[in-house]
Amino acid sequence: MRHTDMMIQKMKNSPKIKDNSGKSYYATSDKEADRLEVEKAKLAGDNNQNFSAKSLAVVEEIRGPKSKMTVEGGIAVKMVNNTSAVSSKGYIVCADENTDFAVILATQDKSNPIGVFYEGGVPNGEEAWVVVNGIADVYFSDSVTRGQWARGFITGDTDYVAGQAIAQDVEVIPADDRDFPIYYGDVDVFKYFKIGYALESRSSPGLARCILHFT
């Protein structure tokens, strides 16, 4: 079999996407190290043509070496898991202050979380996908109701587990304080631990889909 025929066959057995004109394109494989290859009518021609389209419908996910858009609708980046344990899906992480491009679990009173682990089972010291925006599954320590805040734990919260989220009703800023640039009530405190809003409800501990929105 000629090399060009082998390439065509490889593409046709791979995930397929379409542009807005209906033309089909194929990825050489679903491995992260492989780049998108475009099906061409004549592979004997210029195999280095640039791929472009006004719009693109993707069946699964768009990814690069260090970032991707997940099938759930989140934006994820690769960070080193420096939690001293395997990653747990949906657990909240913060930037590691002692290691470049690494994350640690959000602990009680640890402010400014940056995302949640996209998947579990990634060993300590290896790169893991962390969802930093958009839609993601977040692990809650207890029940959650859609529309509630998702945030990390602070002093006084019960059922604390490192990395897990707690649900809280959305606070309403008193009318008398709305004209000030900073509100010094509980809202101002909680915002440093908030990671987003719940999009679905569950009555027990576990994963619930959220829209991540960091203050």
Key descriptive features of the protein:
215 residues, mainly beta, Virus Head Decoration Protein, Chain: A, 2 domains, 5-stranded mixed beta barrel, 4-stranded antiparallel beta sheet, 7% helix, 32% strand, globular, disordered N terminus
**Residue fraction in strands:** 25-35%
Q: Order the strands across the largest sheet as they lie in space.
A: 7-9-8-10-11
* N-to-C CA distance: 57 Å
Shape: globular
Helicity level: under 10%
Written description of the protein model:
By secondary structure, this protein is mainly β. It has two domains: 3-60, no CATH class; 61-215, Virus Head Decoration Protein, Chain: A (Beta Barrel). 7% of the residues lie in helices and 32% in strands. The chain contains two helices and 15 strands. It starts with a helix and ends with a strand. Residues 1-12, 28-46 and 180-184 have low confidence and may be disordered. Residues 1-29 are annotated as: Disordered.
Could you provide a short overview of the structure?
By secondary structure, the chain is mostly beta strands.
SSE layout:
Elements: H1 3-12, E1 16-19, E2 24-27, E3 36-37, E4 56-57, E5 62-63, E6 67-69, E7 74-81, E8 92-95, E9 102-105, E10 115-117, E11 127-140, E12 149-151, E13 166-168, H2 186-190, E14 194-198, E15 206-212
Parallel strand pairs: 7-9
Antiparallel strand pairs: 1-2, 1-4, 2-3, 5-6, 6-7, 7-11, 8-9, 8-10, 10-11, 11-15, 12-13, 12-14, 14-15
